[in-house]
What we know:
Layout: H1 2-71, H2 77-135, H3 138-141
Amino acid sequence: MRISIALLLTLMVLAQGCAPYAQVQIDLLEQSRRGIVQVHRSLDQKSELIKSFHAQRRRQLDEAFDADVRQRAELTPEWVIDARRTYAAAIDVLHEASSASARAAEIDRRNLAAIDQALQQAIWLQSAQLRWLKLRSPSETSP
């Protein structure tokens, strides 16, 4: 019986020392969540830059096609068909690159959301531990 009382007292003393450690862990996890928000903003900015890059590439393609047509003195049916095919293929390539960029951005957003959710769960677990440690604190139970 003496051993179990001594063990209980030892655990209570050790547990009291864990409360500040648990709070530090919570603080680090909350800081990590703020980092996730910053990375999310950065990804949004990069996505906008990539969209504008793809739009610029499309404008350049349109301008090149227009210039090519204007330089032609005579538009033969064969030239029109070949130019249409080439232009359509170039548009498909630009569209595929734009779609790939959008898919990558969405994957990044989902990954960040999963990381944030994991951090929220870790904060909840640490908070529960901290509440338990505070309830078990000898200073709060003594008159």
